[in-house]
Every structure is written in C-alpha cells, then in structure tokens.
Amino acid sequence: MAASRTIIVAGAGIGGLTAALALAAKGFRVTVLERTGRLDEVGAGLQLSPNASRILVELGLRSRLEACAVVPDAVTAINARSGRSIVRMRIADVATRAGAPYWVVHRADLQAALAAQVAAHPAIDLRLGCAVDDVAPDADGVTVSAGGAQERALAVIGADGIWSAVRGRVFPQIAPRFSGLIAWRGTLPAEAMPDGGMLRGVQLWLGPDAHLVVYPISGGRRINLVAVVDGSWNQRGWSARGEPTEIIARFAHWAGAAQALIGAVENWTRWALFAMPDGGAWNQGPVALLGDASHGMLPFAAQGAGMAIEDAAVLAAGLAARHGEGRGAAAEVAATLQRYAALRQPRVRQVQRLARQNGTIYHLPGAAALARDVAMRALGPNRLLARQGWIYDWRP
Ligand SMILES: Cc1cc2nc3c(=O)[nH]c(=O)nc-3n(C[C@H](O)[C@H](O)[C@H](O)COP(=O)(O)OP(=O)(O)OC[C@H]3O[C@@H](n4cnc5c(N)ncnc54)[C@H](O)[C@@H]3O)c2cc1C
What we know:
It holds the Pfam family FAD_binding_3. The protein has 396 residues and is an alpha/beta fold.
C-alpha cells in the first residue's frame, strides 16, 4: 500500500499498540517499531477505568482481557496508622453506570492481549528490536530511521514512552522532571496474602509521606502492591531491584496488616517517578506524540495508561476523518494532528493536576491527615465517586 495510507508508530507499549489497532480499524496500514527484542514482563498492575476499557472493548479485546483482568468490587481508603477503613467506594456501580468494565490487570497481560490482537491484524506490521533513531518531516510526509533502515509514511506517532526518542528529535527542549517520589512495585501469590487471599477490591492505604495501593491481578491469582515514598534515587527505567529491608523499614510504623502485606512481597522493583511538564507541545507537521511521550504523569489518578488509550482513539478518528490523498494531503495531516493535540490537551492537563493533588492529599501527616479522613467520611462514597465522573464517563 502507498505511503499515503501508512502510519508508523514508534513504541509497542500500551499506547502504541492501541493506536495501531485503532488506526488499522480505520483502514490505515500501520508499522509499529519497538526497541526491545521481546515484549518482556515489565511494570506491574494497572487500573483500567471505563473511559479506557470502553475503547479496548470496541477494538475487540473484551474476551482476551476478561481472561486475565479482575473486576474489583470496591476501592477502600484505609488510614495507615490505625488500619481502619476511611471510606469504601463501590467501584462496581461506576462500571454499571458507564456501561463499560472497571478492570485491574497486570501491564504485561494487557500488553500481551494487545500484541495478540495486533498479530492477528493483516494491516499491522509489528517489528521488534527496531529502535527509532530519527524522524525527518518533509513536504510530502516523513522519513523514519530505525535499525539502520529508512521508511516513508504519511505520519509518525511517537508512543515511545516517557524517555521518547521521537520527542527528543522534534522537541529536544522538553524533558521529564523527577518528582522526588519513588514507586516500589511488587507482587505476591494470592494464597500468600495475610488474610488468605480473599481480596476482591482495591485498597488505598494513606499514611504520612507515603501511600500503598493493593489489588488482585492475573485473574486473581496474584496481588499487586505499589508503595510510594519520597527519596532522591532517580535512575531511569521500570525494573531496578528494590532491597526489601529498606521498604520494610519505611513502613515499620504502619498498621500490622499493611506491614504484613509489605513483608509478604517476593520481588520488589523500584521506579523513580518522573513527570512531563504540563502544556508542552505534542505535534509538529506529520509527527505527533501520545501517551507518556507527551504527558507522562504521576500515577496517583491511575490514568496514565487510560490517557494513552484515549489519545489513540482520538488520533485515529481524526486521521480517518481527513479527506485528502495526493496534493495537500501532508498539510491536512499536519492540521489534523494539531486538532488532535488541541482536543486532548485540556483533559490531560486536568488529569495531571488531579494526580498531583491526590499525591499531596494521600501523603498528609498528623492533624491534616485526620481532617482529610473526616472530610472523606463526611462526603461519603457516592459523592467521592461522583467527583470522578468526568474521567470515567468520557467517550471518544
Ligand atoms: C507505579 C505506577 C502505577 C501506575 N498505575 C497506573 C494505573 O493504575 N492506571 C493507568 O492507567 N496507568 C498507570 N500507570 C501509568 C502507565 O503505566 C503509563 O502511563 C503507561 O504505561 C504509558 O504507556 P505508553 O504506551 O505511553 O508508554 P510505555 O508503556 O512506556 O511504552 C513505550 C514503548 O516504547 C518503546 N520504546 C522506547 N524507545 C523507543 C524507540 N526509540 N523506538 C521504538 N520503541 C521505543 C519501549 O520499549 C516501550 O515498549 C502507572 C505508572 C506507575 C509508574
């Protein structure tokens, strides 16, 4: 097929694979170039709220995801010192109202499901071990250099994560900033849970200068833990080993149940939390960014992957709605990518702000934490959940 219908996607992460499926569903031929030679098991659990799950369902992923995701019944906020529940929000009601599932899933399971769907699509060519080195826009499209070869395309989508090489070529001045926070991630078999593995929901433990998120993944067979603490260790990457004694010591003053969970984890990895500054550029001519490449954010709204999935749907719909082939097509693509950025940026900025606010609220110490707990109880679960409606009820 002509380069005029070919889109190159850099990166086969959650955003890149979703973009490939969404673009192929609109009739484009898609080449996905992924740096790593294997889609390895990196990362840990992800929450997928209805705004994102709806898109995945429409792309035909329901049965693949139902096989590995868990449908949590509730999100329970817990005071880390007392171990007492602050509020229990029935997340199942959110899914019913939104008409799409609320899932918790291992990132590797989600990526594998997307990759299997991609492999079954004749219009998508996924090439592993093929890092994008350069993008060179011109009057008719773009040339992408990867693995010593050059490819022509109508547009290139930089879905290559927070350390994006595509962004580095077009916007070298925009870079992620270290937040001063570190996420420790680990899993344990459900039967090793201190309560015997009956967890069906999401636990959000709130403590001074730290929080802990716990939920089942992998069809309920494993439990995912994310413990967020402050610190100065700021190496890049998703998979640096964490020393258990260090994290156990950080949570030594927490309620016994939280300590037992931390102590039961088999394999800790550390992830320094970087975030992109708000308001950076996302597009230039035939080049556009999506997902963490454009708006890597703190994970405290549980929406980083969700926003990447939304980006993919909006981008594909915009490119499909264009008319032109031939003369003027490149200008129209550039205008379409500009509209994509303008459509997405206000919503993503709002989510980035919410994530930062949540980080502050989750980590309040002393009297401020008591006031937070009182306010959450007074608002109650329904009003707390209703405040998230603008995220969950969104449709492309
Ligand atoms: C602790 C923590 C908890 C989180 N929890 C949630 C949650 O509950 N819900 C949620 O929605 N999000 C969550 N997130 C965020 C989520 O993981 C990310 O936002 C999401 O994975 C970003 O997807 P992406 O496709 O943009 O980038 P990535 O998934 O990072 O994928 C980028 C891909 O590009 C490839 N690549 C890199 N460079 C190149 C190159 N030069 N050429 C080709 N390929 C390249 C990489 O190998 C990778 O495969 C969490 C994040 C953290 C840190």
